[in-house]
Amino acid sequence: MRPFSLIRPTTLAAARARALAEPQARPFRAGGIDLLGLMKEGLRAPAELIELHALSATEGAEMRALAATEGGLRVGALVSLAALARAKGLPPSFEALREAASSAATPAIREAATVGGNLLQRPRCWYLRHPDLECLKSGGASCLAEGGENRLHAILGGGPCYIVHPSTLAAPLVALAATVTILGGGGRRTLPLEELFAPPRERIDAEHRLAAGELLLALELPAPAPGLRSVYEVAKEKLSHDWPLAEVALSVVVEGQTIRGARVVLGHVAPIPWRALAVEQALVGQVASAELFARVAPLASVGARPLAQNGYKVALTQGLVRAALHRACDVPIPE
Prior knowledge:
single chain, about 325 residues, alpha+beta, Uridine Diphospho-n-acetylenolpyruvylglucosamine Reductase, domain 3, Enolase-like, domain 1, five-stranded antiparallel β-sheet, four-stranded antiparallel β-sheet, about 25% helix
């Protein structure tokens, strides 16, 4: 790792001003799990890191908050995954978020990793992270995964790059209709979290729509509707410290046995958290049953275009959707 300076601004204005002076050479550091890894691998060599944990108590209060808000929840960007996983008083309707936070990486990493860092980390594609290769995202002419080793890559929404979005929290937060507050040169702006993520067709140099010097401050989950339930399901090759092969987070509003609303979000199968809109539409107004779930689960892979080695993700994703629906609606799985 090359030498660097750690800058410790105490105000948001000072942090942004320092970053804007030379954005590529002065990234923000929160938990630093991904950024320091990139630096150790020689993939980034910033001259300075801007330490967000140095913000004063007043300036950093919003970024450190984890609190109920009129039935909803505010989660600051500097909240650790471990704090989120063990938060007391988290509404049962937000169980998908707790489950996802509890499943990420290892206990030690969860203590350091932050919500903001998890959402904004770079893809784990081995071609992007190889110091001797130039893929499309690192300045090359083509996606090396498309015709190479691609068993962990995208089956939905891929092209011209076939990364999968690496965040564990993104799918449940989108399923729970979270919004994100961003601080930039024009002041604060708030948008639905799913609009934060940019597919490769839109932006090849990053996976988000943040402008230079913009800071992700916090997320807000709205108060759950009566009858809202959420779950998170994930498949990994090994349970500890491994990246998902596929995941699904969903929320459903159930009235009696009738599904009145649904948000189904797939993870690690597309370059962005992927809304399974066909599944959502097929569920609304239907009575929860094993037959319904078996019928709608295949809709999760509508439009899938598997590469040579990742076709298994089609059936895997359908199975995760079906399992999540059974658990969320409390319908026994047929033997």
